[in-house]
Amino acid sequence: MQNLLGSILFTLVVASFMLVIYRVCHDTLTYNKKFNITLMMLSVISTVLLALIQNNPLLSLGVLGSLSICRIRTNTKDPRDLGFVFWALAIGIASAVGAFTAGIASSLIMGVVLVVFHKLDKGCEHQMMVVRGEKKQLELVQNVLHQAGVTVQSKNVFTDTFELVYELQLEKNEEEKLVSRISNIEGIRGVNVLAPKTKVA
């Protein structure tokens, strides 16, 4: 019983570190507080389950049979969320088998790597730019956007107007310069920069 309580305490400590990394690596649109709490639950549950079945082969078969009917149907907003699920399970397993050093070392390495990649990618977030204006300015706007190296996602041309949707991956200051340049073109009715693309469940 004492071993189990010690394992659960260890799980809570390491899982808390994982939750902090999860929050740091997600922006306000992709962060899901409920999912973050679920990661903590997965870590503790996996610790308890493995502690119960590791010395009982028959019980382990029964638990595996029960888990085999489970299905995860929740769509994640960020592909990295699946990695966090396995990280949570790994913490629980390491704690249950007493591999505390491996659990701490692997979590620290994983956390550092994720934060570093997040910082490197933070300066160039993917965003969407929507430009609307008079049809006579279509070619000029397309040339400006082509020179900026952005990627066209959608192009709608009407009788007198147009609507262009482009994907941006620029530094903050370069993005502001581009928006200002296009906005100053005569005949442009609107330039909108949308939030980073996310997968909506």
From TrEMBL:
Q: Where are the transmembrane segments?
A: 6-25, 37-54, 84-117
| Keywords tagged on the record | Membrane, Transmembrane, Transmembrane helix
Q: Would the keyword Transmembrane turn up in this protein's UniProt record?
A: yes
Q: Which Pfam families match?
A: DUF4956
- What name does this protein carry? DUF4956 domain-containing protein
